[in-house]
């Protein structure tokens, strides 16, 4: 059996060659991907053996095992690996769990992510947002598959390979609007979807224009309902971070509905001013009255934008 150390040494030895030597990680990966693709193509009339997907996952994990030395052995092959994963995830749903795990692992590595073709990234993001939207439509938000799809969507948005094309940015805004208009879950899937939205706002918020306000118009009802009903601490942390991001982006001031702005400010103020804790600091999320909007009755005559500006400029707490 070919040793792990020998694979690593052979990668370095063949680094200047164009073809993949079999006794290297890229060479073995090329052979394995080809084998899986041929098997899938020959099994169109029957379900492919899931052992193929498990083998692929174990191979990638072994190739990226830090205990075996430096990472990055797959760099020369990574574009083809991402292409292979997209084709398999799209065409063989039964492989989705194992291939999704590999995708989350590889895209988190900057050396690999930056080599990912933007077209493939866009196709994968579209594929997973469609999976999440279908889950929301069918109200199947309690399944493990649903959680894994939300997790992969979050990982993709957290690790873009570069700037978003305008078309992909607009499509993602629209998908988030559809998702939160229909989402009725306040558990771990909702927490992961809020995290995905926050990752999108962090990476692309300054380029969204009116899209920031459009997102909040769709997110608002979910935000209020989840805040009042959930016991998930991470979800509440995500909602507070969302409020901070919206306040900093100031897209919410584009809304003509004063009540929506008041609710957003109350959401953040209630947790940050009364408890004196940040969304990332691990506060105990309890409010005095458990409702949004109470504080607004005492501040109707106060300029909403001025309050936001004062908070941001003063840098009060985690604002």
From TrEMBL:
<dbReference type="InterPro" id="IPR038980">
    <property type="entry name" value="ATM_plant"/>
</dbReference>
<protein>
    <submittedName>
        <fullName>Uncharacterized protein</fullName>
    </submittedName>
</protein>
<dbReference type="GO" id="GO:0006974">
    <property type="term" value="P:DNA damage response"/>
</dbReference>
<dbReference type="GO" id="GO:0004674">
    <property type="term" value="F:protein serine/threonine kinase activity"/>
</dbReference>
